[in-house]
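Quick one, probably user error.
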């Protein structure tokens, strides 16, 4: 685990925005995408942190952590589920095959948890027992496992909008996806989740829930895209303390942005209104949790690149610019 002071010193050099002049630029909540027009896309993973569907702040090394985690999982699962990754030319950049992204996020949950308005625990605590078409049993407590993993897909909101959870039939009625495509994505999602849970369990980590994005390549293949099992797309808990903390009614030890979500909720912010100022110590603690998640999941030490990221990215991508 790297020293906290290294993370603290990186705060002035967090990567908030890029403008690389590499074709069409498409900005997401966390990633800046560059479409070169020749069948490739360069995904620059910034240090932006989103929560409650809002960009909240930046975290030191977050982009490097997410990019490394995604590359790790793409390599690990490519034989079972094809993906769009071609190479990683920079710690914050992934070169991928351009594909048409399906307008649905495939969310898989295996525990009754969450703090957002769309979280399954929020839904359950209000007395509702059907979530995205799944019937839930009575008597469950917060952070307990569900009877089994369930698929709770959502629409993909435009930048700045809110995702909406919906059952399979609701999505089909909306016309956003065909039954054949939905079922293919559902099968691939459950395969990825099964692999992820098994791998994480070997390293003492619980993969609680996650979301996947899929796309179709020009030759018609369905591939998983964007990211897989990163601290942004997934919730992770430390297995060795989970049972004891559950018995005490305490929150599980997590490695993901749930820490920041809870901090914001404690300030009275759950997505609407002015975003509270995030103190540096909260940003550093959140960054340390991202780094710990990467190290626990992969079993490899995180080796940060501490140079100013934007000049480094320009240098590493200088030979990749479209002609």
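Nope, works fine. Designed sequence:
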């Amino acid at each position: 685990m790297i020293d906290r002071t290294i993370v603290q010193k990186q705060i002035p050099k967090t990567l908030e925005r890029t403008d690389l002049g590499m074709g069409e630029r498409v900005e997401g909540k966390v990633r800046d995408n560059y479409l070169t027009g020749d069948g490739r896309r360069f995904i620059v993973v910034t240090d932006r942190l989103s929560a409650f569907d809002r960009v909240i702040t930046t975290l030191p090394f977050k982009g490097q952590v997410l990019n490394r985690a995604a590359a790790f999982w793409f390599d690990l699962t490519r034989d079972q589920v094809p993906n769009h990754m071609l190479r990683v030319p920079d710690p914050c950049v992934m070169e991928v095959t351009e594909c048409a992204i399906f307008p649905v996020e495939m969310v898989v949950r295996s525990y009754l948890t969450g703090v957002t308005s769309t979280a399954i625990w929020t839904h359950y605590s209000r007395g509702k027992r059907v979530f995205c078409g799944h019937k839930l049993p009575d008597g469950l407590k917060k952070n307990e496992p569900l009877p089994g993993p369930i698929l709770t897909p959502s629409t993909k909101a435009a930048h700045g909008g809110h995702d909406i959870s919906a059952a399979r039939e609701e999505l089909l009625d909306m016309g956003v996806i065909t039954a054949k495509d939905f079922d293919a994505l559902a099968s691939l999602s459950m395969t990825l989740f099964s692999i992820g849970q098994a791998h994480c369990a070997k390293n003492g980590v619980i993969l609680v829930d996650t979301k996947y994005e899929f796309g179709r390549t020009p030759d018609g293949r369905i591939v998983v895209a964007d990211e897989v099992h990163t601290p942004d797309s997934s919730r992770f808990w430390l297995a060795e303390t989970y049972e004891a903390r559950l018995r005490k009614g305490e929150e599980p030890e997590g490695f993901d942005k749930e820490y920041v979500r809870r901090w914001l909720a404690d300030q009275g912010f759950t997505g609407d209104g002015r975003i509270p100022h995030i103190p540096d110590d909260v940003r550093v603690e959140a960054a340390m949790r991202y780094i710990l998640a990467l190290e626990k999941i992969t079993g490899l030490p995180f080796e940060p690149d501490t140079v100013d990221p934007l000049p480094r990215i320009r240098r590493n991508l200088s030979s990749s610019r479209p002609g």
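Residues 311 and 317 are 10 Å apart (CA to CA).
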